[in-house]
Amino acid sequence: MKILVANDDGINAKGIRELTKALSQVAEVYVIAPDTQRSGASHSITMHKKLRFVPAKVEGATKAYSFTGTPADCVKMGLELLRRQNIMIDAVFAGINHGGNLGTDTLYSGTVGAAREGLVDGVFSVAVSVNSHEADDFGYACKLAVAAAKAFDKGMFPKPHEFMLNINVPNIDEDKIKGLKVAKLGIRDYDNWFNPVHLEDGSIEICYEGKPVSFDMANEIDLPADVLLMDMGYATVTPLGYELTAKNAAAIEETASYAVSVEFLK
Q1: Quick one: which H or E segment has residue 240?
Q2: Which of 193, 240, 259, 265 has its CA 20 to 30 A from that of 128?
Q3: Which regions form coiled coils (predicted)?
Q4: Is residue 168 marked as binding?
């Protein structure tokens, strides 16, 4: 089994190096990661600009490169580079991210974007995160990643791959983690994230930050929300796809009504 590891925190981040060492116990690992911090890059790719792969050394990796592109670039371009070296990647792992990728934050996440790019390319993909930007212990997250790799290798996730896995681990001692729960994406918002500073030249300076707020979704009748389970001390795993069509009955009906109404405007 050959695994490509990417991230959005950059090739020198502790999380990606711990993940690489862990996965190298069960697979042949290749690393292609941004040369700088690229958090919040989502699924963006670089166009009309030359990018560069630079050989790097990462413990546990058969081969590694730092790359001047986005996290999604690392996977999109990295898979193609490796193919041209006759290296066919079986799975993509993104992380381990320093900070959770929960709820609606997955829309902004470069870690999730990298894994989703693997899914778009037809490769089994997993995003792994620890819910703190100051995370230092990646042991349990590594165990979950290795378990996912072993499950894939045993055929638990057959092709065609229609979803990726988004794994999040609370930043607490492993013996205090209550277990792993399947969850849906919740709603993630932040208190006091927009604090403008008015400068003398008339410009306004801001920094995107704030304390995360988890909306109470305890009364949901189907899957519980990941943000709620994280607050309760559980690790979570959520299947994510790239097919974004809203398929609930109301969405289809209202859109159909709009389409019909347009005909009367002609």
Answers
A1: strand 235-240
A2: 193
A3: none
A4: no
Domain ranges within the chain, ordered by starting residue: 2-185+220-249
Is 138 in contact with 15 (CB distance < 8 Å)? yes
> Does 171 belong to an annotated binding site?
no
**Is 97 annotated to bind ligand?**
yes
Q: Is 7 marked within a binding site? A: no
Which amino acid appears at position 155 of this protein?
G
pLDDT tens, the chain, 266 aa long = 999 999 999 999 999 999 999 999 999 999 999 999 999 999 999 999 999 999 999 999 999 999 999 999 999 999 999 999 999 999 999 999 999 999 999 999 999 999 999 999 999 999 999 999 999 999 999 999 999 999 999 999 988 899 999 999 999 999 999 999 999 998 877 776 778 889 999 999 888 776 777 665 555 546 889 999 999 999 999 999 988 888 889 999 999 998 988 877 76
